[in-house]
Design a protein that fits this description.
The chain has 134 residues and is an alpha+beta fold. It has a single domain (5-129), classed as Nuclear Transport Factor 2, Chain: A (Roll). Helices cover 37% and strands 35% of the residues. It has 4 helices and 6 strands. It has helices at residues 5-16, 22-25, 44-58, 112-129, and strands at 26-33, 41-42, 64-70, 74-83, 86-96, 102-110. Strands 2-1-6-5-4-3 form a 6-stranded mixed β-sheet. Helix 3 packs across helix 4. The N and C termini lie far apart (46 Å).
Length: 134
Protein backbone atom coordinates (compact mmCIF):
# COMPACT_ATOMS: atom_id res chain seq x y z
CA UNK A 1 0.00 0.00 0.00
CA UNK A 2 1.46 3.39 -0.93
CA UNK A 3 1.98 5.96 1.82
CA UNK A 4 -1.19 8.07 2.21
CA UNK A 5 -0.66 11.80 1.49
CA UNK A 6 -1.39 12.87 5.09
CA UNK A 7 1.23 10.46 6.41
CA UNK A 8 3.73 11.53 3.74
CA UNK A 9 3.15 15.16 4.78
CA UNK A 10 3.78 14.25 8.43
CA UNK A 11 7.01 12.44 7.51
CA UNK A 12 8.13 15.52 5.56
CA UNK A 13 7.50 17.74 8.59
CA UNK A 14 9.50 15.38 10.81
CA UNK A 15 12.37 15.02 8.32
CA UNK A 16 12.62 18.76 7.68
CA UNK A 17 12.00 19.68 11.35
CA UNK A 18 9.83 22.45 9.90
CA UNK A 19 6.65 22.69 11.96
CA UNK A 20 5.24 25.60 9.90
CA UNK A 21 3.45 23.19 7.53
CA UNK A 22 1.70 21.49 10.44
CA UNK A 23 -1.15 24.00 10.75
CA UNK A 24 -2.34 23.13 7.23
CA UNK A 25 -2.16 19.41 8.01
CA UNK A 26 -4.35 19.66 11.13
CA UNK A 27 -8.14 19.61 10.98
CA UNK A 28 -9.87 22.48 12.78
CA UNK A 29 -11.30 19.96 15.26
CA UNK A 30 -8.11 17.94 15.74
CA UNK A 31 -7.51 16.26 19.10
CA UNK A 32 -4.14 15.58 20.75
CA UNK A 33 -3.66 12.93 23.44
CA UNK A 34 -0.49 13.58 25.42
CA UNK A 35 1.39 10.93 27.39
CA UNK A 36 1.60 13.38 30.31
CA UNK A 37 -1.67 15.37 30.25
CA UNK A 38 -4.84 13.64 31.42
CA UNK A 39 -7.37 15.43 29.22
CA UNK A 40 -7.34 15.48 25.42
CA UNK A 41 -6.32 18.81 23.90
CA UNK A 42 -8.95 19.89 21.37
CA UNK A 43 -8.76 22.23 18.41
CA UNK A 44 -6.12 23.10 15.83
CA UNK A 45 -4.45 25.83 17.95
CA UNK A 46 -3.90 23.57 20.99
CA UNK A 47 -2.81 20.58 18.93
CA UNK A 48 -0.41 22.80 17.01
CA UNK A 49 1.03 24.17 20.26
CA UNK A 50 1.54 20.70 21.73
CA UNK A 51 3.03 19.17 18.58
CA UNK A 52 5.32 22.16 18.05
CA UNK A 53 6.59 21.86 21.63
CA UNK A 54 6.97 18.10 21.14
CA UNK A 55 9.00 18.76 18.00
CA UNK A 56 11.37 20.94 19.99
CA UNK A 57 11.74 18.23 22.65
CA UNK A 58 11.89 15.12 20.45
CA UNK A 59 13.38 16.12 17.10
CA UNK A 60 17.10 15.86 17.71
CA UNK A 61 19.56 13.93 15.50
CA UNK A 62 18.83 10.65 17.33
CA UNK A 63 15.08 10.69 16.56
CA UNK A 64 13.92 7.99 14.16
CA UNK A 65 10.85 6.00 13.34
CA UNK A 66 11.72 2.34 13.86
CA UNK A 67 8.48 0.81 12.61
CA UNK A 68 5.35 1.91 10.80
CA UNK A 69 1.97 0.32 10.20
CA UNK A 70 -0.65 2.26 8.26
CA UNK A 71 -4.02 1.96 6.61
CA UNK A 72 -6.02 4.39 4.52
CA UNK A 73 -6.93 6.71 7.43
CA UNK A 74 -4.61 5.88 10.29
CA UNK A 75 -1.06 4.93 11.21
CA UNK A 76 0.98 3.70 14.14
CA UNK A 77 4.58 4.89 14.12
CA UNK A 78 7.06 3.53 16.67
CA UNK A 79 9.85 5.96 17.46
CA UNK A 80 13.16 5.96 19.29
CA UNK A 81 15.14 8.95 20.52
CA UNK A 82 17.73 9.80 23.14
CA UNK A 83 16.98 12.86 25.27
CA UNK A 84 19.42 13.97 27.96
CA UNK A 85 21.00 10.51 28.03
CA UNK A 86 17.67 8.70 28.42
CA UNK A 87 16.56 6.23 25.77
CA UNK A 88 12.94 7.01 24.90
CA UNK A 89 10.70 4.58 23.04
CA UNK A 90 7.21 5.54 22.00
CA UNK A 91 4.37 5.38 19.55
CA UNK A 92 2.56 8.04 17.54
CA UNK A 93 -0.97 7.00 16.61
CA UNK A 94 -2.32 9.28 13.91
CA UNK A 95 -5.76 9.36 12.27
CA UNK A 96 -6.75 11.62 9.37
CA UNK A 97 -9.99 12.31 7.54
CA UNK A 98 -10.94 12.01 3.86
CA UNK A 99 -9.61 15.55 3.27
CA UNK A 100 -6.15 14.38 4.42
CA UNK A 101 -6.14 16.42 7.63
CA UNK A 102 -5.08 14.96 10.96
CA UNK A 103 -8.08 14.58 13.27
CA UNK A 104 -6.49 12.60 16.11
CA UNK A 105 -2.89 12.34 17.31
CA UNK A 106 -1.98 10.20 20.33
CA UNK A 107 1.52 9.79 21.78
CA UNK A 108 2.51 6.99 24.14
CA UNK A 109 5.97 6.87 25.74
CA UNK A 110 8.08 4.55 27.86
CA UNK A 111 9.90 4.10 30.27
CA UNK A 112 8.65 6.04 33.29
CA UNK A 113 11.80 8.16 33.62
CA UNK A 114 11.33 9.20 29.97
CA UNK A 115 7.76 10.29 30.71
CA UNK A 116 8.96 12.33 33.68
CA UNK A 117 11.67 14.00 31.59
CA UNK A 118 9.28 14.75 28.73
CA UNK A 119 6.71 16.15 31.14
CA UNK A 120 9.22 18.64 32.50
CA UNK A 121 10.53 19.64 29.06
CA UNK A 122 7.07 19.95 27.48
CA UNK A 123 5.83 22.05 30.39
CA UNK A 124 8.75 24.43 29.94
CA UNK A 125 8.19 24.67 26.16
CA UNK A 126 4.46 25.28 26.50
CA UNK A 127 4.96 27.86 29.24
CA UNK A 128 7.55 29.71 27.14
CA UNK A 129 5.17 29.70 24.15
CA UNK A 130 2.10 30.88 26.11
CA UNK A 131 0.94 34.42 25.40
CA UNK A 132 2.00 36.81 28.12
CA UNK A 133 -0.84 37.62 30.52
CA UNK A 134 -2.68 34.40 29.67
Amino acid sequence: MPTPPALAAWHHIVASRDMRALADLLDADAVFHSPVVHTPQRGRALVLAYLTAAGQVFFNPTFRYAREVHGTHDAVLEFEVEIDGIQVNGVDMIRWNDAGRIVDFKVMVRPLKAIQLIHAKMAAMLQAAAPKGA
